[in-house]
Amino acid sequence: MLTNETIRLVKQSAPLLAKVGPEITAKFYHNMFTEHPELRGVFNQSHQTSGSQPLALFSALAAYATYIDQPDVLNDAILRINHKHVSLGISPAQYNIVGHHLINTLKTELKEQFTHEVEQAWISAYQFLADLFITAEHGLYQHALQQVGGWQGTRDFYIDEVVNHTPNIKSFYLSPCDGKAIPKFKAGQFVSVFLPASAQTTSQIRQYSLSAAPNCKYFRISVKSDGLVSQYLHTLKAGDTVKLTPPAGDFTAKETNRPKIYISAGVGITPMLSMLAVHSQTTPDIEAYFLHANKMFEDLGFLGEINELGKGIKQFSVTNWLESKEHNALPGFMDISAVAASLPCAHGEFYLCGPLSFMAAIKAQLLRAGVSPSRIYYEVFGPHENLPSS
């Protein structure tokens, strides 16, 4: 357990972090990658370049320093990070590397303000948090390994079929090369795909939501071609193989009798497809609403699948927004007020996935419509960030 003195010193140093800002975490990553280039593949390098990864780590550090005496405040964020770490295959040894470089960077950048006592407090606080993460992730690793069809680490899958849905989104049906069973995941979860190293790049890892209901024979991922790994996947064909980690993620539909409202933009539709499929199969008497935003009609490549799944649900509706003002869709960006009167805002559960700016805007609209923040759930592609509370 952390001592009161450790807690006091860490909380006291929170304003020091605010003064230096995300630049301190950018320097941490630079130092760590210089000494351990093998870790570049674990961290999305485009997020490093854009600054979103250093910003996310800085925000996490600041939050930990602020709430070190109220850890329950951070439970949801920690659980989400645990799942991301498991999907990346993070090991206890890597926590030691991160801790070493993090403390050294704080010491170098904060200089005389980072006294020996503050340094020791941060070492204790980091080790305490690392132990919590390692223990929680060990449990997730064991669960993935011990369930029927489960495994730990990577497993080879071959591509059964590739389906083109839109000009830039393809679905890949993936079956295990060993012919053995695969686990029954929860709708909304994802798998990690490993891009092998090449002369141009180190090995890279990306998460992709599973976009169909759990099936004992295959996984399906639906991928937009807009990044290094995604573009690589778009070059593959039936018969090619990929390496996957077991399904992970805490963005899953709650097993309640509340109406479900699935809200997405762009390729954020993928976990919603899985949730809707399970909803149709298992709880057809619970009403469902599907709200989606995209640029033009040709981007609505899953519309037929959505309508087909909706046929099995007693009360179901689909509303699309298109920037291009075409087809039978509402024009422009998604505006919840246009449909709020028909939604169960007082008691429904709202699931969001899409660009961060989209989800922040929709959450604000839902709050104005009277939806409780406790009934708004969301998934973030890339570094975890919390949506504004208002």
TrEMBL record:
Top EC class for this record: oxidoreductase
Xref: CDD domains: FHb-globin (cd08922), flavohem_like_fad_nad_binding (cd06184)
EC number: 1.14.12.17
Reactions performed catalytically: 2 nitric oxide + NADPH + 2 O2 = 2 nitrate + NADP(+) + H(+); 2 nitric oxide + NADH + 2 O2 = 2 nitrate + NAD(+) + H(+)
Highest rank taxon of the organism: Bacteria
Domain Globin: 1-138
Stored Gene3D superfamilies: Globins, Nucleotide-binding domain of ferredoxin-NADP reductase (FNR) module, Translation factors
UniProt keyword Cell membrane present: no
Keyword terms, alphabetized: Detoxification, Dioxygenase, Heme, Iron, Metal-binding, NAD, NADP, Oxidoreductase, Oxygen transport, Transport
Molecular function GO labels: FAD binding; heme binding; metal ion binding; nitric oxide dioxygenase NAD(P)H activity; oxygen binding; oxygen carrier activity
Cofactor dependency: heme b; [2Fe-2S] cluster
Domain FAD-binding FR-type stretches: 152-254
GO BP field: cellular response to nitrosative stress; nitric oxide catabolic process; response to toxic substance
PROSITE patterns for the chain: FAD_FR, GLOBIN
Similarity-based family: In the C-terminal section; belongs to the flavoprotein pyridine nucleotide cytochrome reductase family.
Primary role: Is involved in NO detoxification in an aerobic process, termed nitric oxide dioxygenase (NOD) reaction that utilizes O(2) and NAD(P)H to convert NO to nitrate, which protects the bacterium from various noxious nitrogen compounds. Therefore, plays a central role in the inducible response to nitrosative stress.
Matches recorded under NCBIfam families: PRK13289.1
Protein name (Swiss-Prot/TrEMBL): nitric oxide dioxygenase
